[in-house]
């Protein structure tokens, strides 16, 4: 693994917008950054990223099977009791999941270390599955990348196939939703809607605030059409705590992601994985604050059970708080994870995002941030596999 300098295409912004990647810049600076690229060997991808992702996914699914019927675990995860039966029933039905993303610390010199699992509402799909691939094709064609360069990136095709499997040969109508305030969320959902259409689904988009509820407890769209299947780029922990969320049990809507994903989209997963496989080479010691943690050390990171984009992360050095990031999270509790080195290749701290589609590895993104806590202004750096 190495970082190389690259020459950005003068028209990349126009090309990004042509494919719907309109959120390519944030607060006046590029979010997409092709002035550099990360080169990997095939062995690094297959053995250090892809294989551990598949293994940890199996562990995570095993944990869901246990947690879904364990009141102590569900309480620890701060999941409201009213939704416990629905989580168990969803798991028992085998409700299919669509996608998620593991975030790893990795520098090519040792095993990738799991920082967290974005199992419910991760963004970054369009720029990974489409624009990063178009970048590879163009630079390989004009000789700026080695002949035969490849990319760990089957995200587009696997998402389409996953939607086809969700349809299961039936004429399903898929509704898709997100909040009204985020261009990134809207762009991500528009991309997923296009993939669902390619898979043969009829689709209808509406914002979260436009979802209605009938007197019979059924969710409907603005035309009073029942919402039988809903993709929601909207976190389960928010839904469970809002007034309309009370109608979820028994509403009859098939949710994507399924409600059992609430068990995984929770930083409380980290200490439970560590209990399942202590000293696993791809895991980092993690505990709840009230647990004895001899291998945590005196330098650790405190993360809210629920948080987004690096918000409300607290750093401790030698047991003393050394600062935190701002945000609205933390009311439900925290976990503590051993502080590890986040690689820096000279331009910022680097994390690897390993995509899972229908619980199978499907591609990768690389993000770089000036801070060791990856925030919403972290840059997306394209990658390639050297021949």
Question: Can you give a write-up of this model?
Answer:
By secondary structure, the chain is α+β, with helices and mostly antiparallel strands. It has two domains: about 1-265 and about 350-385, no CATH class; about 285-340, no CATH class. It has nine helices and 21 strands. The chain has helices at about 10-20, 40-65, 70-75, 85-95, 125-140, 155-165, 185-200, 235-240, 270-275; strands at about 1-5, 25, 30, 35-40, 100-105, 115-120, 175, 200-205, 210-215, 220, 230, 255, 285, 300-305, 315, 320-325, 335-340, 350-355, 360-370, 380, 385. The chain has a five-stranded antiparallel sheet. A hairpin with a 2-residue loop joins strand 15 and strand 16.
Provide a concise account of the structure shown.
The protein is of the alpha+beta class and 387 residues long.
Secondary structure topology:
Elements lengths: L1 E4 L6 H7 L6 E2 L2 E2 L5 E5 L1 H26 L3 H6 L7 H10 L5 E7 L7 E6 L6 H17 L13 H13 L5 E5 L5 H16 L3 E4 L6 E2 L5 E2 L8 E4 L3 H4 L14 E3 L12 H8 L9 E2 L12 E5 L9 E4 L2 E5 L9 E5 L10 E9 L2 E10 L9 E3 L1 E3 L2
Parallel strand pairs: 4-21, 7-8, 7-11, 11-12
Antiparallel strand pairs: 1-4, 2-3, 5-6, 5-18, 9-10, 13-17, 14-15, 14-17, 15-16, 18-19, 19-20
């Amino acid at each position: 693994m190495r970082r190389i300098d690259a020459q950005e295409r003068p028209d990349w912004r126009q090309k990004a917008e042509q494919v719907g990647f309109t959120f390519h810049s944030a607060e006046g600076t590029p979010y997409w950054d092709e002035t550099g690229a990360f080169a990997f060997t095939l062995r690094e991808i297959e053995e250090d990223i892809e294989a551990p992702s598949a293994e940890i996914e199996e562990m995570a699914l095993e944990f869901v099977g246990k947690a879904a019927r364990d009141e102590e675990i569900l309480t620890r995860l701060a999941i409201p009791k009213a939704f416990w039966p629905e989580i168990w029933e969803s798991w028992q039905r085998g409700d299919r999941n669509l996608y998620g993303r593991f975030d790893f610390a990795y520098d090519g010199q040792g095993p990738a270390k799991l920082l967290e699992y974005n199992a419910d509402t991760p963004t970054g799909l369009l720029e990974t599955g489409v624009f990063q691939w178009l970048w590879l094709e163009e630079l390989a064609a004009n000789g700026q990348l080695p002949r035969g360069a490849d990319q760990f990136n089957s995200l587009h095709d696997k998402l389409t196939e996953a939607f086809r499997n969700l349809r299961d040969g039936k004429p399903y109508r898929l509704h898709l939703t997100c909040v009204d305030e985020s261009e990134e969320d809207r762009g991500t959902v528009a991309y997923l809607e296009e993939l669902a259409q390619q898979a043969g689904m009829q689709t209808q988009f509406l914002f979260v605030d436009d979802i209605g509820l009938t007197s019979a407890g059924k969710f409907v769209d603005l035309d009073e059409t029942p919402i039988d299947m809903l993709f929601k780029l909207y976190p389960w922990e928010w839904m469970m705590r809002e007034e309309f969320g009370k109608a979820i049990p028994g509403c009859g809507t098939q949710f994507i992601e399924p409600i059992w994903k609430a068990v995984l989209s929770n930083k409380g997963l980290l200490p439970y994985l560590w209990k399942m496989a202590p000293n696993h080479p791809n895991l980092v010691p993690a505990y709840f604050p009230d647990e004895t943690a001899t291998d945590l050390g005196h330098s650790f990171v405190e993360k809210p059970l629920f948080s987004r984009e690096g918000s409300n992360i607290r750093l401790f050095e030698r047991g003393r708080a050394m600062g935190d990031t701002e945000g609205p999270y933390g009311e439900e509790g925290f976990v503590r994870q051993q502080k590890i080195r986040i690689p820096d290749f000279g331009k910022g701290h680097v994390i690897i995002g390993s995509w899972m589609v229908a619980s199978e590895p499907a591609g990768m993104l690389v993000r770089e941030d000036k801070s060791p806590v990856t925030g919403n202004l972290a840059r997306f750096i394209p990658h390639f596999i050297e021949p």
